[in-house]
C-alpha cells in the first residue's frame, strides 16, 4: 500500500512538473512573439524614418524635414511604450513559473536528473544565467526609446544647421 501511495505521489508531482514546464514554454514563446513583433515594427519605422529624412537630403530647411520624420519618431516611441507592459507581464509570468518549478524540484529529489541544476551551486549559476538572459528584453525597449528621442531631435538640429 505504501508503494502504491509513493507511486501516486510521484505521478502527481511528475504531472505538476510537466504542467509547469508547458506553461513556462508557452510564456517564453509569448515573450518571444511580443519581442519579435516589437523589433519588426521598429525596423519598418526606422526604414520609413530614414527614407523620409533621406528624401530631403541637403535641403534641411523644408517643412517636410520637420514634420514626417518626427511623426515616425513619435509613432515608434508610442509603440514601444505600448509594448512594454506586455513584455513585463510575460517576463513576470516566466519568473513565477520558474520559481514554482524550482520549488517543486527542490521538494522532490528524484527530479534532479531532469534539471540543469543538480546541486545548489549549479542552481545558482542557472539562475544567474537566466537573469543575464532576461537583460535583453529589458534593455530593448530602453534602447528603442532612446533612439526615438534622438531621431525626433535630429530633424530639428538639421533644420537649425541646414
How does the SSE layout of this entry go?
Layout: H1 2-55, H2 68-107, H3 120-161
Helix pairs in contact: 1-2, 1-3, 2-3
Organism: Devosia albogilva
Keywords: Membrane, Transmembrane, Transmembrane helix
Protein name: DUF106 domain-containing protein
Characteristics:
162 residues, mainly alpha, 3 helices, 84% helix, elongated, transmembrane
In words, what does this structure look like?
The chain contains 3 helices and no strands. The protein is mostly helical and 162 residues long. It has one domain (2-161). α1 (2-55) packs antiparallel against α2 (68-107), α1 runs parallel beside α3 and α2 packs antiparallel against α3 (120-161). The model has no long low-confidence stretch (mean pLDDT 86).
Major pleated sheet: none
Shape from CA axes? elongated
What is the radius of gyration?
Answer: 24 Å
The amount of helix comes to: over 70%
State the end-to-end distance: 87 Å
Structural class label: mainly alpha
Secondary-structure element order, as H and E? HHH
Kindly estimate the percentage of residues that lie in beta strands according to DSSP: under 5%
Could you name the ranges where pLDDT drops below 50 across 5 or more consecutive residues? Answer: none
**Overall number of domains:** 1
Number of alpha- plus pi-helical segments: 3
Count the strands?
0
Q: What oligomerization state is this entry in?
A: single chain
- The overall pLDDT, averaged over residues, is 86
Transmembrane segments: 35-58, 70-90, 136-161
Organism: Devosia albogilva
Protein name: DUF106 domain-containing protein
Keywords: Membrane, Transmembrane, Transmembrane helix
